[in-house]
Amino acid sequence: xxxxxxxxxxxxxxxxxxxxxxxxxxxxxxxxxxxxxxxxxxxxxxxxxxxxxxxxxxxxxxxxxxxxxxxxxxxxxxxxxxxxxxxxxxxxxxxxxxxxxxxxxxxxxxxxxxxxxxxxxxxxxxxxxxxxxxxxxxxxxxxxxxxxxxxxxxxxxxxxxxxxxxxxxxxxxxxxxxxxxxxxxxxxxxxxxxxxxxxxxxxxxxxxxxxxxxxxxxxxxxxxxxx
Length: 227
Fold this sequence. Notes:
Blueprint: H1 2-29, H2 42-45, H3 55-70, H4 73-81, H5 91-94, H6 104-128, H7 146-161, H8 166-182, H9 188-205, H10 209-224
Helix pairs in contact: 4-8, 6-7, 6-9, 7-8, 7-9
């Protein structure tokens, strides 16, 4: 009886290890730092995208077509160059000292925020699977916009850290989000939903203990580096 029990235990341990190895990549890909995805379900909190062929959908299409038709080459180039999702995109609003090389804690903190928001938005994109504007091929759907979610969530947190720069930060964030329309990659309703998604995510994250601890460390770093 004792030897049989040891055999069963050994088999169970082997199976447990194999299962852990099998699921490890998936767990690593869906790791959240400050968000619990069970706290915020965008498929419940956001309205659905416009129905195909509806008046709202046609208005979306017309606004994208107009933005693309009327954009200048300079505006297009600037929007393309300023499309990376990094907190240091906001350096023009804050100052030349706002650089990753000088602010490693800030870089890590906002990379975690961006990762959490991106994963949250991707789950909503997979749920709705809204096609992108005509001629655009992307791995993920259009609704909600991940760039808009990044812009709002990052602006909210950054403005809490640097309240004197709040107006400039939000002004730049709005341009960053709106550029997705100018680039022909998103509809206006994608941007509105993405902005709301990022706002909701920031609201939830700011109540997380790990977030609050890291926030204070970043605030101290910004003060120490005279940002």
